[in-house]
């Protein structure tokens, strides 16, 4: 007895495979973009905190220079197409209490720069039930005199 010909299996298998392949490519694209945006935010906060800490000299003018130097850095993300919003520059003497306008100026030795959550739109994962956007934030701290390790 001869079995009936089975046609169309390759077409169905290719359709399923293509769908899975496109889903994986979309996942890689969106996760890659999230990684790039997170890296851009972290690089900005690192540079801003270092430049702000380098300007601290125990005076009100030093605090103003620190804040100005952090704000003068290029504040762009999303491959340079969007500006960070709500960047916060704070100062502290010991890292426990952070102030934007400190009163005890000579004791301020730490600068912290925070980029609050900026919303990055998701492109492909939305089609398969993923979120419409992901929030990316970063924070960095720098000191005027980093701790030196001795042997």
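Sequence proposed for the structure above (151 residues):
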């Amino acid at each position: 007895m001869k079995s009936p010909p089975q046609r169309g299996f390759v077409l169905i298998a290719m359709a399923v495979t293509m769908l899975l392949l496109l889903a994986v490519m979309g996942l890689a694209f969106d996760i890659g973009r999230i990684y790039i945006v997170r890296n851009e935010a972290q690089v900005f906060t690192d540079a801003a905190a270092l430049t702000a800490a380098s300007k601290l000299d125990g005076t009100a003018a030093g605090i103003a220079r620190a804040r100005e130097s952090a704000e003068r850095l290029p504040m762009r993300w999303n491959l340079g197409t969007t500006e960070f919003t709500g960047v916060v520059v704070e100062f502290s003497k010991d890292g426990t209490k952070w102030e934007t306008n400190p009163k005890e100026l000579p004791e301020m030795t730490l600068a912290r720069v925070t980029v609050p959550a900026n919303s990055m739109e998701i492109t492909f994962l939305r089609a398969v039930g993923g979120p419409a956007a992901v929030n990316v934030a970063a924070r960095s701290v720098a000191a005027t005199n980093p701790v030196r390790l001795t042997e």
